[in-house]
Write the structure tokens for this entry.
Amino acid sequence: MIIKGTSCAGARRLTVHLTRTDTNERAEVKELQGVAAEDLRGALLEMEALASGSRATRPFYHASISTRADERLTDEQRAYAIDRLEDELGLTGQPRVVVIHEKEGREHCHIVWSRINLDTMRVISDSHNYRKHELVARELEREFGHERVQGAHVERDGKERPNRTPSHGEMLQAERTGMSASDVKERITELWRSTDNGPDFAKALWDAGFVLARGDRRDFVVIDANGGTHSLARRVEGAKAKDIRERMADVDPNRFPNVADAKRIQRLRQELAVARNVTTEHRPESVRLEEERRSKPSTGDGMEWTDKGGMVEQQHSAMDAVKQAHEGRKARTEQTDRKQQVNDADQGRRERRQAFMREHGREVLNELDDDLDLGHERGRSR
């Protein structure tokens, strides 16, 4: 049995994932508990709304319980397993939803709890959750007579730590980008082993279509060609965090883009590649050969690496292009906002003028009539 889980946010995103039938043969809402809503989407939105009164940024705890195809749980066993996991995580009595997925004959269930304690409006801690998952899984395996799965946190019994399995978020990212964590790990590990220092490794990543970026919580992360984010320490096989720090000691993280800018760089690279492919089809052969000759000293993107430790010149050039595009969009947005403000002001003046005329129309007409009568009398007197 495998139990996974993490704190998360996004009621609408969870609804879409839990109700997908394109990747699952069956998606069945099994339980709605502690909510007034009668459907999955309404229940999750209700939980999210209740969290608005707290400081929670991740108001849900999303867990999954998976078994082998030949070890399918009965309804009673599933309910017992969910209650046992709920108790271990400290979520007893919290609003929850349960959804059953079936794929290729294998069944697993998803549980989403609200992490907000409505009595105190505080978030329930999710600390040590991986250990708690394994503790419950080992107990349930013994009670249900299921085959034991070797974990990484409890009941190791002197056995080596098993390879880390992809998290739920990583699996979703793989579906979205089309690049699995194992494929990315294999490629980055190859680049790691073929280089000897941080600058060379950074250059090798760029040449292979990746972008090394400055992480928010980690020193470095890697952005793949489709915008997926990967922890560098988790994508180098056989390397520990200490090994990563030693190799990258001569690389200044501040010289690299943050994750958001790195993703923009990847989008820009794809747009440039598409543009080149389109224009290449209509170029004369002589022009194409001349451009290839000129591009040989560089990486092919027209942005060369400097010889002395300037390992991010390409990324800097790409970042400049991203910044220029961003500034252009910002200027256009500001111009549109100014036009809208002028239009709103004009509209306001027109509405006030119309309201004034509607309110005082008769008086104004009467004054005009009096002036006309006075003018006629003056004319007759002359």
User: Anything to note?
Assistant: Residues 136 and 295 are 59 Å apart (CA to CA).
